[in-house]
Design brief:
- The chain is α+β, with helices and mostly antiparallel strands.
- The protein has two domains: 2-175, GAF domain (Beta-Lactamase, 2-Layer Sandwich); 193-418, Phosphatase 2c, domain 1.
- It contains ten helices and 17 strands.
- The strands form three sheets. It has a seven-stranded antiparallel beta sheet with strand order 1-5-6-7-2-3-4, sandwiched between helices. A five-stranded antiparallel beta sheet has the order 8-17-16-13-14. A five-stranded antiparallel beta sheet has the order 9-10-11-12-15, with helices on one face.
- The relative contact order is 0.09.
Length: 423
């Protein structure tokens, strides 16, 4: 039959033994070896033939051996046997006669093939009452496990649970460190796709800066001379982290390949849109400004898939013109064709300003948005500055506005300015 232990106290001798185990565990640095010490202490203090620590399998409703009894390569379903009942019901279970007790399941409760006479099992739970595993002890050398044994086992189980918590914390720390390294590598890859040095373009100043909210982000930009003209890209993939970073990198790479293959602006946009629609998950898309500037005729042709607002500072008027998207975001819907590109003429002193929504939608501590008007004013006030300094002023203004509020989204600024005739 199965029994449960009532409220009793450990003897001074038993308490001293438990404290000695606790001291050894506290001084140990190898968390994996700690479980072996707990198993050895269970064998010694309970005068048992064998002991086994099971740990929960987070991906399935099973227990797997963690230490002791040779660690057999098995899995135990938590709905079977005495250890299953111990795990499910979170209670100490004693089997005084394994041969006759129906609670004892030889296939589950005797993974080592012992001649099991008696057994006790104790749940291992953390401070939040989450099940970490089960401590199983076999065959008392004195015949059966008595009340003192049960009390000792409960004390050992508490120590074992602490060890499992440390192992779990150590594992999570290693996973976190590994993920951090992977994120750093992803950041290096993403940053390598951005211009290292701003390109020289006769009659123009160009500048771009990407500041992700995390190690990686969904924004990207490109500024490069190609056969079709000067390529200007600013994109923003939905989400945060590695997945949108890969989407943004994929879009940028596909556009470069399309242009190198001789595609014009319209066919490149359609081709990349349809390919991304096939490749990305259904809930993913990319907003993107895709433009080609003819620096000799000073004409900019562009498509803007969901990317806006687009600002063009007109030096002659001293104000910013606002333009919205010209199409759906990339990968939002299949395109057979697209209307002709929008066209803008760049006069001396004019500035094309592309900013991601991480700037417009930056919230300060009062939950106010940075908004479009502040951007307009910054461009107007800094229109005589070199574009790298104007970009720096925009980022500084956002930081001052935020008053320490955390950056919630990636921020990107791309500026293209036609020089005045005197420069």
């Amino acid at each position: 039959m199965t029994t449960e232990v009532g409220d009793q106290k450990l003897s001074p001798q038993a308490m001293a033994a438990i404290l000695e185990v606790t001291s050894r565990l506290a001084s140990a640095h190898d968390v994996s070896a700690m479980l072996d010490q707990v198993v050895e202490a269970a064998r010694h203090l309970l005068e048992a033939e064998e002991a086994l620590v099971w740990k929960t399998d987070s991906e399935a409703d099973h227990l797997v051996p963690a230490a002791g009894a040779g660690r057999p390569e098995i899995r135990a379903a938590s709905h079977r046997g005495a250890i299953g009942a111990c795990a499910r019901e979170r209670r100490l279970i004693i089997v005084t006669d394994c041969a006759s007790d129906p609670c004892f399941d030889p296939a589950t409760d005797n993974p080592c093939g012992l001649n099991c006479r008696c057994m006790l099992a104790l749940p291992l739970v953390d401070h939040a009452d989450e099940l970490l595993g089960v401590l199983q002890v076999f065959n008392s050398r004195s015949g059966v496990f008595d009340r003192d044994d049960q009390l000792l086992a409960q004390a050992l189980a508490a120590q074992c649970a602490l060890v499992l918590e440390r192992i779990r914390a150590s594992s999570e720390s290693r996973r976190g460190q590994r993920m951090h390294r992977e994120l750093e590598m992803a950041r290096e890859v993403q940053m390598s796709t951005l211009p290292d040095v701003m390109p020289e373009l006769a009659g123009y100043e160009v500048f771009g800066l990407f500041r992700p909210a995390g190690l990686t982000g969904g924004d990207t930009f490109d500024l490069i001379q190609i056969d079709q003209g000067f390529f200007i890209l600013m994109g923003d993939a939905t989400g945060h982290g590695i997945a949108p970073a890969l989407s943004a990198i994929q879009m940028q790479g596909m556009l470069r390949v399309a242009f190198r293959a001789g595609a014009d602006l319209e066919s490149a946009f359609v081709h990349v849109n349809n390919q991304l629609l096939e490749d990305l998950p259904a809930d993913r898309f990319v907003t993107a400004f895709v433009g080609l500037l003819d620096p000799e005729r000073h004409r900019l042709r562009f498509h803007s898939g969901g990317q806006g607002p687009i600002f063009l500072y007109r030096a002659a008027e001293g104000d910013c013109k606002r333009y919205g998207p010209t199409s759906f975001p990339l990968a939002a819907a299949h395109l057979d064709a697209i209307p002709p590109a929008s066209e803008l003429e760049m006069a001396p002193g004019d500035i094309l300003a592309l900013l991601s929504d991480g700037i417009f939608e930056y919230h300060n501590r009062n939950d106010e948005l940075f908004g479009e008007q502040r951007v307009r004013e910054l461009i107007r006030a800094g229109s005589e500055l070199p574009v790298d300094e104007l970009s720096a002023r925009i980022f500084e203004a956002v930081e001052d506005f935020a008053e320490g509020a955390e950056q919630g989204d990636d921020m990107t600024v791309v500026l293209v300015k036609r020089r005045t005739e005197s420069k």
